[in-house]
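Lay summary. Proteins are chains of building blocks that fold into shapes, and those shapes determine what they do. In this project we predict the shape from the chain. Here is one chain we studied, written as its sequence of building blocks.
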Amino acid sequence: MNCPNCGQPVPEGLAESRCPACGRPLSEPLPGGGAPVAEPVFERVTGPGGGGRSGTPWDRRSDMGFITALWRTLRDSMVRPADFFRSMAVGGPQCSPVSYALILGTIGFGAGLFWQGLIALGMGMAGGEVNRQEMGIYLLLVPFAPLLVLMGLYVGTAILHFFLWIVGGARNGIGATFRVVCWANGIQILNAIPFCGGLIGAVWVLVAEVIGIREAHETTTGRALAAVLLPLAVCCGFVAIIGILAAILIPAYVSAAKGGL
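And here is the predicted shape, written in a compact code that computers can read:
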């Protein structure tokens, strides 16, 4: 049977007198009989990996339609990430999150390369010479965008889960971390926005990953934040050390070379 108020299916033999979806009494329909809900926010996942959680719209793309599921998944992961990742399945087949990340990630990565090529062209024209070699590098990378996105997903997951394990927040395994990385990296579609899209997308992805790790692994915000930011801190520290060593050693090398002349 369906609820007379919201139109959502009600399990047979339900002992409760209220609809589990809208919470209204099944025996007291709204005036006019109510109307079915056109867009259920989250539905229960059946099959492997559901684990009592709810699924993403992309998991239900066969029912919702390709474009609708793609848009709603992107929208939910961006504007209500806590609910989205709290409802995400933490196990099961990876084809759904991988396909989603590949579609949006490839578009975003390709668009980013396109804008970088235009910037290189503009800078070259402003300087009186077009840097064709730099433009060629961007163009050559475009066909490899899906492969680069896929490699980024797995490498990024390994690094993130390692630091999550260090801070003691890895409760549901690396598969849950991989799913968070996939769903969050769909936000990289913002790279399609000229010039500032890459920066906005990068920050938004970091925020989504922090919330996603917290919800998927049922850990604290502090541990999730540390797991996401520690790799950046290590990378920045490494670059800083290299810069300091270069600033010290290069002048010493130049002075020694001049002294030997």
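What the prediction tells us: DSSP finds nine helices and no strands in the chain.
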